[in-house]
Amino acid sequence: xxxxxxxxxxxxxxxxxxxxxxxTQRLLGITTVFGNVAVGQAVKNARLFCAKMNIxxxxxxGCSRPLALAPSAPATLHxxxxxxxxxxxxxxxxxxxxxxxxxxxxxxQPHAITLVAIGPLTNIACAINQAPxxxxxxxxLVIMGGAFGTDGHAGNVTPFAEFNIWKDAHAADQVLASxxxxxxxxxDVTHKVLISGEEVRQLNQPVLSAICRPYLAYxxxxxxxxxxxxxxxxxxxxxxxxxxxSVTTAPVRVVTEGISRGQTLQRVSTLTSRDDPFAGLxxxxxxxxxxxxxxxxxxxxxxxx
Length: 305
Description:
By secondary structure, the chain is an alpha/beta fold. It is built from twelve helices and twelve strands. The protein has an eight-stranded mixed β-sheet with strand order 3-2-1-4-5-6-12-9, sandwiched between helices. The longest helix is centred in the first third of the chain and has 15 residues, at 39-53. 49% of the residues are buried.
């Protein structure tokens, strides 16, 4: 069991991941960021979901916009409020600083805190920009984000880019090019771990069943599949079942402008070049293959318990 800071733009699949995290890890705090919803709504959603699911963790308010890009509209497949419009939400959107909480926590517990980031990486980028001394003190940063084209799994918001990375490509490039020890769970693996609507209902988790209805309806309409990919949950699957993943290592950069903005690039050639964008960068761990059934069964067993 690890001590986690859980960084989220909480929508439906984020909520599934948070439920899984609360049952498998030690939650130090939940830091929110814009993405699926505006950051104020993310604060409210985190508080509502924690109350509904009996999760005890303080909630912090993070960044409201990208580092350099103009803000873009929230996602629509999670419902207007990000949690399927399933519940009234009376909770406040006022909270202490997420970025400062990350900095203070890592300094207070060096080499002990794992950061799990399942939204845009803006909070993480701001933390390491403001306090670069925390970079060698982070145990691990586990990210749901990116797409490398394995088995045809490319972008989901453009032909090149995955949503979380695309939302703040500059932040993602700073984080992935830093010396932080990163594990990436990109669309290459998250698209391979699917659960059906019936399997969601069989979890006997009424809150999860309620919030995912618009998400499932969107999937059925767009993909012809009554179900969902466990995208964000796979960050917790990595922590619980690292042996279920096939991992490669390579330095990673993110395209920050042009038609391929948000595309994640790994070094694929050993040829030297005069202007090498990967020169001197840490080789990050990329999960590009997965034992989907092992991941599914552990998730089911944990959430049914």
